[in-house]
Write a structure and sequence with these properties.
The protein has a single domain, classed as Rossmann fold (3-Layer(aba) Sandwich), CATH 3.40.50.720. It is built from eight helices and 14 strands. Strands 1, 2, 3, 4, 5, 6, 7, 8, 9, 10, 11, 12, 13 and 14 form a 14-stranded mixed sheet that branches. The model has no long low-confidence stretch (mean pLDDT about 95). The structure holds flavin-adenine dinucleotide. Flavin-adenine dinucleotide binds next to helix 1, strand 8, strand 13, strand 14 and helix 8. This is FAD dependent oxidoreductase domain-containing protein.
């Protein structure tokens, strides 16, 4: 594969984990990471970064999705236990999920047998927060803070010989000189692929100074409190097909009110930032190969996008799967040069 050129499109968590996995598996490939936004300009940087897929999160099949989740967990867990854990922003975090309506809400088939601790909350724990909490679970998971992970991964990619190109891409023909493209454009894939199944789910968060909060909490109506190394994230909302990237003061007030109701000690916590992001939602995450015939050329593309609200969670797993598709593409001899 020496001298073969691969373009990884996108520098969010999906593009970076894919580029690193490709480099690890095929050290002699010439890989270029192409994107118009990096680090704190991406949607990935808005995420609190908790490892927690929804039960509804789905890729090609349930079994393959479970494998993605497992592969991701072991990737982050390995990092968490390595000397790089602090630089990469990966830590362990424990907390509660409460519901006043249904026991199913506090269960998670992907996590129950994967995490080191996943159990029902005790009666005493259900009374930790104000509210009529009837069901609860307590678990220990991982947190990957993208303000650290993305620059760390980008540096690692460059140190291993990867190239970076800052550019807006309007069509695959703009990058047709690569032997294979791996499309990790997140919401950008909607226009690039005319994929109207990909829709934004808008989210807004508040970052506050509350260093006494060491435990995460999830509750009804998308309410969550997640402690990070610099600030605590308060969320949230899920607005389907909204493209609004501005901070909405009504959303902010509602998020603040719900979080303070759950944890009254947050009442006077100083607000340090507000952020909005568009989760790239697709009913099934798209990780598949496409040979695009433009008439004049055949462009080999491996898609890896549509992770919705779970891109930090699932990225290393879908990256591994995308690289497996790359290997299959090579073995099948579908390409002229590879
Ligand atoms: C409020 C909020 C909280 C969240 N919390 C969590 C969480 O706790 N855990 C979790 O797992 N997930 C969470 N998520 C979801 C997570 O942020 C996303 O799933 C993830 O960031 C998607 O990553 P991505 O790499 O696909 O996209 P992005 O981070 O958006 O990266 C896309 C990349 O493609 C580039 N690009 C796109 N189009 C073009 C173009 N035309 N030309 C050039 N470059 C282009 C961009 O510049 C960028 O580099 C949250 C999301 C939000 C909004």
């Amino acid at each position: 594969m020496r001298n073969q050129r691969v373009g990884v499109l996108g520098a969010g968590i999906v593009g970076l984990t894919t580029a690193l996995e490709l480099q690890r598996e095929f050290p002699s490939l010439q890989i270029t990471l192409i994107a118009d936004k990096f680090n704190n300009e991406t949607t990935s940087s808005v995420a609190a970064g908790i490892f927690r897929p929804a039960s509804s999160f789905e890729g090609i099949s349930r079994d393959i999705t479970s494998q993605w989740i497992q592969d991701s967990y072991y990737f982050y867990d390995g990092l968490c236990q390595s000397v790089d854990s602090s630089a990469a922003g990966v830590t362990q975090v424990s907390g509660y999920q409460f519901s006043s309506t249904s026991p199913e809400i506090v269960r998670n088939p992907y996590l129950e047998h994967l995490l080191p601790v996943y159990r029902s909350a005790t009666e005493e724990e259900l009374r930790l927060c104000p509210g009529n909490w009837l069901y609860g679970s307590f678990y220990t998971t991982l947190l990957t803070e993208c303000y650290k992970f993305l620059p760390w991964a980008l540096d690692r990619f460059k140190l291993s010989g990867g190239k970076v190109l800052k550019k807006i891409i309007s069509s695959f023909s703009d990058v047709a000189d690569y032997d294979v493209l791996i499309n990790c454009f997140g919401m950008g894939a909607r226009n690039l692929c005319s994929d109207y199944k990909l829709v934004p789910i808008r989210g807004q968060i508040i970052k506050v100074q509350a260093p006494w909060i060491k435990t995460f909490f999830y509750a009804d109506y998308d309410t969550y409190v997640i402690p990070g190394s610099k600030a605590v994230t308060l969320g949230g909302c899920r607005q389907y097909e909204s493209y609004d990237l501005s901070i909405n003061p009504h959303d902010k007030a509602a998020i603040h009110e719900r979080c303070v109701k759950l944890l009254p000690s947050l009442k006077n916590a100083r607000v340090v930032a507000d952020a909005v992001g568009l989760r790239p939602h697709r009913s099934t995450v798209r990780v598949e190969t496409e040979i695009k015939d433009t008439g004049s050329e055949k462009i080999k593309i491996i898609h890896n996008y549509g992770h919705g609200g779970y891109g930090v969670t699932a990225a290393p797993g879908t990256a591994k799967y995308a690289v497996k598709l790359f290997r299959e593409l090579h073995s099948a001899g579908l390409r002229n040069k590879l």
